[in-house]
Specification:
Blueprint lengths: L5 E6 L1 E2 L4 E2 L10 E2 L1 E4 L2 E17 L7 E12 L4 E7 L12 E7 L3
Antiparallel strand pairs: 1-9, 2-5, 3-4, 5-6, 6-7, 7-8, 8-9
Length: about 110
């Protein structure tokens, strides 16, 4: 039976001291090595895929801006997760919520 992707769209919290800062040298965010979602910690074992999402300027200009960095990762729980980093927070109240869990594919 095929595994089904489940939509989540909830913020995750990076565990301090576990980020991959090497990615910052090429303009990417520091990918968390561990993060917390729903009070449980997960470790990133492998990055399966990465991609970027761009979009038009919100000010009516013709410029295109990088909006999100996406990662499909395999965790220590055997779950494949799609997480993303939002370059600009959606509001001041959510300024610290920059990493999100988009979806999961449960372990077999």
């Amino acid at each position: 039976m095929p595994r089904t992707e489940q939509f989540i769209s909830e913020p995750i919290t990076s565990v301090p001291g576990t980020t991959d800062t090497a990615r910052m040298t090429v303009g990417e965010p520091a990918l968390p090595g561990r993060f917390t979602w729903r009070s449980r910690q997960y470790a990133v074992l492998e990055v399966l895929a990465t991609w970027k999402q761009v979009g038009p300027s919100k000010g009516g200009h013709e410029s295109i801006y990088l909006r999100k960095h996406w990662y499909r990762v395999k965790t220590d729980a055997g779950i494949e997760m799609t997480i993303y980093f939002q370059r600009q927070p959606s509001s001041r109240a959510r300024a610290k919520d920059r990493w999100y869990l988009y979806s999961i594919v449960p372990a077999e």
